[in-house]
Amino acid sequence: MYARINQLARHFSRPLPNYLHLSAAARPSLSITSRAMSANDQAKRTINTAACLIIGDEVLGGKTVDTNSAWFAKYCFSLGIDLKRVEVIPDDEGDIIEAAKRMSDKYDFVITSGGIGPTHDDITYQSIAKAFNLPLVKHEEALSKMKAISRPHKQQPDFSWDVDSPQRKARYRMIELPYDKNIPDEEQVLFVADDLWVPLSVVNGNIHIFPGVPRLFEKMLTGLKPTLLPRLVDPEGKGVHRILFSTPLPESGVASYLTELSQKVEGKGVKVGSYPRWGKSKNTVTLVGRDTEYMESLVPEVEEGVKGKRVQKEGEDDDDASDQEK
């Protein structure tokens, strides 16, 4: 079950495909025009902040370990996007609706991970559709790609796309997407990899619904990058700069200096971090920011202040010493 933003508009006036159908869960639209305007605005604004919503009872129950949020955090850092929030919630319609609406309103770029498989508890699509008063749509291009790329399971050798069956209905669940007829199709249903049939559904202009399977999650986010770049603060996607220092001093030994340093660099948008490494001989201090030249100028001062040295990766100068004061 755990197996689960802005192109130029073309064909804006083309008629709505006749395969659209309302799900039983969809609510009547309160204001289609205002909703579409809001979604269009969301899809065009500069991406400064991001949020990640992990959906799945199995994560909260300890059956599955969430690695997607950590991967997404690195992805955001590499692009200079400020990841502000990560939440894990159950496969519960009310929780999904509340979180999706809140995050869409507060953050520029929102992703969800999980809950878009073929089983009864895969309710992400229907819940997010309900959150924004949208119908569910059996998306024909996604269906065509699924037929062409996916292969029958070895336990279902007699499966046929031409025969109505529980198996076919289950597969259809994975391409029945929240759909706004006032927004161009190519802005709300993206295919980010030629060898994947899995659609990336974009709702309200900034919610991107991803599968939970890490391999698919990572591949689809990577494929989405060219679409995001024009909307970043830094369109070249250089991201944020991080400098690491290794110090033999305990945190109590660098606390006073780091407090002074933090106050000094705050106006330049630089954050100072301190991270104890239990059982290791060295602790880590970091500078994080966008002003690379200014941060590089601080290196000698910080090395002296923490009685340490700059390193390229944490732990590269560890020795055999063990416990120390933290």
TrEMBL record:
PANTHER family: MOLYBDOPTERIN BINDING DOMAIN PROTEIN (AFU_ORTHOLOGUE AFUA_5G11210) (PTHR47675:SF1). Residues 315-326 have a biased composition (Acidic residues). GO terms for molecular function: FAD diphosphatase activity. Coiled coil: none annotated. Residues 304-314 have a biased composition (Basic and acidic residues). The lineage of its organism: Eukaryota, Fungi, Dikarya, Ascomycota, Pezizomycotina. This is MoaB/Mog domain-containing protein. It comes from the Eukaryota. InterPro entries: FLAD1_M, MoaB/Mog-like_dom_sf, MoaB/Mog_dom. Gene3D superfamilies: MoaB/Mog-like domain. GO terms for biological process: flavin-containing compound metabolic process. It holds the Pfam family MoCF_biosynth.
